[in-house]
Amino acid sequence: MLLNEELIKNSEIMNFKIYKLGGLGIVLGLLIFSCGKKSPDSENPTENGFDKSAMLANYADNVIVPAYLGLQQQLSPLEVAINAFLASPTQANQDLAKAAFKLAYQKFERVSSIQFGPGNTYLQNNFLNTLPAEPENDNNAGINAIENNAATGNYNLTLNSTTNQQGFPALDYLLFAPDAIQKLSAAGSEKRKKYVQDVVARMKDITGHIVTDWQGTYRATFVANTKTDVGSPIGSMVERFANEMDKMKGPRIGWPFGKQSGGLIFPEKCEGYYSGISLSLAIENITGLKEMYTGGGNGKGISDYLIALKKEQLNKDVLKQFDLVIADLNAIPNPLSASLNNQKPLVETAYKDIQILLTLIKTDVASATGVRITYQDSDGD
Predict the structure, then answer these.
(1) Assign residue 136 a region: left if phi > 0, alpha if psi is -120 to 50, beta otherwise?
(2) CATH of domain 227-381
(3) b vs e for 221-231, b when ≥16 Cβ sit within 10 Å of the residue's Cβ?
(4) What is the CA radius of gyration of the chain?
(5) Which DSSP category does 270 fall into?
């Protein structure tokens, strides 16, 4: 083994020095010390006096499980409102469904950064929020596939190939597109209505499984693992923070704003485009991400861990940048789809501050906590 070879080599060097010095006790002491040292990946519940297990318990009990319960609970009134709209596709009922949809979507934004553990097992973000739902050239993708599913009733929402045909983006289109009321009122719309109901049922099913797992055995597994290596709770959280910021920079703001298309703006790429709630979703997402970073405010979080690691200034910089991004997004007039053209300076300011926050988390926070970022961002820039 490499460790044994290294010890042998060190021992030979030390023996040579001892022969020169005439002190056998020195090498024995050094070898004992070397063998007793823990590797960087060893379990270490307390670091610099900071209790990482207590931090993880706070995350599980006071941030993560409550966030999932919030989503689960809000999906029920959403289902009721949608069923009322489907039964009577009027403007009034659509407005009520839209209000419930907004609340549920905002609850989802609070769990978007928790796709690890059970969230990753059930691919929550893939199935609940692959965005945007937009026309594609490929008849098996985007709105074309959604329309085909709604017309034929032939679909299997458990397949990974159907992630862009379900979840919040699909409901956003099916319920709130300009011709939604017309299509749901048309003769022969039963399959379309059934498809909507199946999408909602699938969302409830996935969320229910995740809640059950967190409230079951996974909570203890999460709290007990205080490592920071790939796949560990701390490693996964920091990586998810970075991943969410990449999404904010890309799909939520950058892609619609033309950052991948030479300045050509695509309003329809906005998250929550048809319901017109893109900005509120972005604000909810970044606010929830800050809450995850701080541990919810009432308990220890990654921010406190950085302070224990003597990275006080980095923590201050990150918190300041969170507040800047939130203020930037609040300054953009609704809807975002219109402001992409009409308020370009405000959107550009938000985009630049998002880039700075992304760098702080993906590079500086990850380095300070010893976390290795393994995912590949989808921007390519």
Answers:
(1) beta
(2) 1.20.1420.20
(3) ebbebbbbeee
(4) 25
(5) S
Tokens 């995350």 sit at which residue? 59
Indicate if 227-381 has the same CATH topology as 53-225: yes
Q: Closest Cα partner for 132 from 157, 96, 163? A: 163
Domain ranges of the chain: 53-225, 227-381
Determine if the peptide bond prior to 335 is cis (ω within 30°): yes
Query: For the segment 13-59, what is each residue's pLDDT rounded down to a tens digit?
Result: 333 333 333 443 433 333 333 333 333 344 567 777 899 999 999 99
Alpha-carbon span 244 to 246, nearest angstrom:
5
Closest CA relative to residue 322, chosen from 358, 271, 376: 358
Query: Closest Cα to residue 45, out of 314, 300, 341, 367?
Result: 300
What pLDDT sits at residue 23?
Answer: 41
What fold does the segment set 53-225 form as a domain? Answer: A middle domain of Talin 1 (1.20.1420)
pLDDT confidence of residue 43 = 54
Which secondary structure element, helix H or strand E, spans residue 51, and what is its range?
strand 50-51
Closest CA to 222 of 49, 361, 52, 69: 52
Residue bearing tokens 């209790």:
51
Closest CA to 334 of 326, 343, 325: 343
